[in-house]
Amino acid sequence: MNATVEEPRTTYLPGLGHDRLLPLYDPLQKVLGVASAHRPLVDQAEIRPGHRVLEIGCGTGNLAILIKRLHPAAEVVGLDPDPKALARARRKAEREALSVQLDLGFAEELPYPDGSFDRVFSAFMFHHLEADGKAKTLREVRRVLKPGGSLHLLDLGGAKVRSDGVMARLQHRSDRLRDNFGDRIPTLMRETGFMDPMEVAHRVTIFIGRVTYYRAIAPRAEFGPAETAAQPAPGRSPCICRATGAEQTGAGPRRSLMPMNLAPQWRKPLLTLHVATAVSVLGTDLVLLVLGISSVGGADPQTIYPAAHLVATWLLAPLAVVALGTGVLVGLPTPRG
What we know:
10 helices, elongated
């Protein structure tokens, strides 16, 4: 496993906004369901034995390591400007005995020769870039892709749909995130020379809002004949995302990642119920905390314990179930035509 040792030349935005929060990055990704979104991205790329694969903005290496685990015959490279994040990625890869090359560098200035990768991945990195940085990154990705190779990008953004919930509306207020919404990303891909940029699928989550999967192909005419990256290998059926059952090949209509959908008119009342029950759960926790403090402070246990049991069994537990259930329902995607 290799890693460069030179210091980064320009500034960058760490995963959670500050180096001190890096230890929380992986646990928070799991809680928010970010890690589970990686598998469909890998599946849509149809990686083959011998492919050279690059992830830009690999951070602590979750996606790069997943790719190597699923495709051990592929050569996997991860690039990130954060040496501390790369150190964590290196330790995780070593624990799994996986050979992943980890390089220090910036997506806007990729330190690789022209036409050196078959697939390039980006997951939840694009929104960290300024508008001009996004265009520079896409041009660099196109440069290092082999003719007919493909870029597979996953990030916050996509269509602007009011029924997506509170988090999506909050994202629209951020300058960097606002630049990810609508057809901005496919448009940027097209403007920087990619062929057939398209939204492959999307999902809507309660915690981070709408996330969208994109694919674009490096042009073949500039470099001569090459493989058709968007087509399945001979003798293979179209790739089906194992986690979701969504068909990923071809240039047909865009699909949601999950067959279950929530009618838009139900999203707002369910979201209201979810927020109300979640707040009630917090209030019930405070009641239990007060009862516990009272017990420690000398209150009669014969009075405190039955009261705490009653609150936990008949109030906290049902509220938690309702909060969880409504959260799952609100997180269901809305299909796009």
